[in-house]
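Closing statement on the guanosine-5'-triphosphate sub-project.
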Amino acid sequence: MADRRSASNARRISRRRMRRRECLLHERADLLTDLTLADLGWSEAWAREAEGEDGTPARVSEVRRDHLIALSPGGSAELTTSDGAGQYCVGDWILAHGPRVTLRLSRETEIARRAAGPQAMRQLIAANVDTLAIVTSCNADFNEARLERYLAMAAQAGCVPLIVLTKADGVADATDWVRRAETLSPEVRGIALDARDADAADALAPWCGPGRTLALVGSSGVGKTTLQNHLTGTDEAVRGIREGDARGRHTTTARSLRRTLAGGWLIDTPGMRELALTDAGDGIAAVFADVTDLAAACRFNDCAHEVEPGCAVQAAIAEGTLDPERLVRWRKLVREDRIATEGVAVMRARTRGTGKAAHASTKRGRGRGGFGDDFED
Ligand SMILES: Nc1nc2c(ncn2[C@@H]2O[C@H](COP(=O)(O)OP(=O)(O)OP(=O)(O)O)[C@@H](O)[C@H]2O)c(=O)[nH]1
Ligand SMILES: [Mg+2]
């Protein structure tokens, strides 16, 4: 009975998707024509920064090995850089003179992590993203420790965080998953949905309307591209996950900035196998504000929150108001971030010493420049 109901549900979604796709493909033809700078997300701050500089503004939509693709009111163009394409990321605002980038403008937000691999390097993921949707599923992918990492990355970047819980169709009641997600940070909002259902995916439209940029991050197979397809009217490949452990197959292999049907921008990203942080001390403190607020109330400044008298953290655990597991996760993340940050700083100094570092020029100098190869994992 349940099987028959779910088959008919899948058929209904599939029919609705087909109808919607036909309409969308028709509408899409107009999406990238007659764009204004405001449509692309341009702001007063960037206009001031660009004043008197050589070149016209464009927004980076793809980063290739040796060039960039950028969008402007004139359309899409291939651009070359003098400091290496790896110094740029999807979402960046740049000025270009002909086919040449003359300046990268400061980043309002900058999403970065420690690059995968043995070398301590910082990898840029995207820039000028307003909202970071951390996508996970109501299944074995849901993992508090991993979500806290993503939330710290969002807080460090300066993005509004969302946790999108896909595959809500596979559980009897998704409200418990939303509650679990929302306890992980005071600022986060959880949204449970069936990403295959176009109407459900529309729940994300408010975050990618005119002038707004939304990025999707998360493990492989959680449904990021399924959401992107609905939100942008595209038809990128999606593939089923492995039965045993709910893991995906790393279908998406590059990041790109796409126009949404709601009139804003969406950045889909390849699934991450692991997320290691670097330079994320402030982000971690923001996500673990409950722990750091308690730590500030300890009797001793250098309290290790173990057996010291007057330890407010241990007192909260004894009272049952702080989950001891959360303290363990906070300690682990702080330590890992400190080691990674030191490693990246050493590596940066070393490459600078040998003259290998190539940093993009910034007028205001707020962005830290890319560091680390733009490989996907
Ligand atoms: N039942 C169900 N299946 C879903 C949902 N969202 C996605 N899927 C399926 O999960 C599989 C993986 O979806 P994708 O959109 O390719 O996942 P992804 O996050 O883009 O994966 P990568 O590109 O590998 O990072 C596909 O078979 C989707 O149809 C959902 O909400 N419910
Ligand atoms: Mg994908």
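DSSP finds ten helices and 13 strands in the chain. With this model delivered, the sub-project is considered complete and its resources will be redirected to Aim 3.
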